[in-house]
Amino acid sequence: MNEAAWERVASLSELEGQERLSVIIDDLPAVLIRYDDKYYAIEDVCTHDGQPLTDGPVENGTIECPRHGARFDLKSGAALCMPATQPIQTFDLEFRDDEIYARPSQSDNSQQASFATTSTPTAAASEPTAAETSEANTEVAPAASSSETSSDAPMVGAMLDSLKQVIDPELFVNIVDLGLVYDITEENNDVVVTMTLTSPSCPAGPQIVAQARDAITAMPGVNNAEIKLTMSPPWGPEMMTDDAKDQLGIF
Ligand code: FES
What GO MF annotations does this protein's record show (predicted)? Predict the structure, then answer.
């Protein structure tokens, strides 16, 4: 694969006194982030539902989407927790005197992440600092996970597709687009789906839970599916995707 050309995106002095700078890289909205004496560049669009990540909190080498709380690894772009399942684009950086150059990272961050509620970010200690080298974001950091994903088990994205078959009988919108699914973990072909309901007294709760369990159990490579209900955080309409809002006429 041919490497993309470097393009100048900003000067270091523009980042002085601030931690983030919105830029355009390869015609994509992006944000430069200085964190822990290192520099990162990521696409400024959450892969869950398009929210800009600019204002998301940065912690332990990850950035959190300010809308529904998905987290992405700053270095690899991997999605580390629900509701996002796809990585964000990251960019290689090169520093030439005061100028910052960038190009799309060609690291293979296209794989869907394996999720775990206790996932921890890749240790930043092994990363080169901007002061030590002229490049950043050059290595792939795999998504951390405390659970093993068995090779014949379905990917999280496929499980989400399956869960989209489960329709809330009151709102007539699938439970994924409603934002009811918080997390999916898989270990040794046993799947645990952590999800919520639109309200603790939702009369359709037992039906939704049973259908969600059936949808996962029916998938090849799944031995057992457990649905864990949680009311924390409580569901709110802001958790819906734009598709779901459109269906419900919410603008
Ligand atoms: S838009 Fe980012 S988590 Fe939903």
Answer: 2 iron, 2 sulfur cluster binding; metal ion binding
Residues near ligand 1 (Cβ within 6 A): 46, 48-49, 51, 65, 67-70, 83-84
184, containing H or E segment: strand 181-187
Fold category of 7-136 in CATH: Rieske Iron-sulfur Protein (2.102.10)
Q: Where in the chain is the domain with CATH 3.30.300.130?
A: 156-248
Nearest Cα residue to atom 1 of ligand 1: 49
pTM, to two decimals: 0.58
Rounded-to-integer distance, Cα 21 and Cα 39, Å:
11
Q: What is the pLDDT of residues 210-241, one digit of tens each?
A: 999 999 999 999 999 999 988 888 888 888 99
For the segment(s) 156-248, the CATH number from 3.30.300.130, 3.40.50.1820, 3.30.230.10, 1.20.120.1810 is: 3.30.300.130
Distance CA 141, CA 73 (A): 8
Over the stretch 62-82, which tens digit does the pLDDT of each residue have? 999 988 888 999 999 998 887
Where along the chain do the CATH 2.102.10.10 domains lie? 7-136
| Ligand 1 atom, smallest distance to 70 CA | 3
Report the C-alpha gap between 111 and 86 in whole angstroms: 7
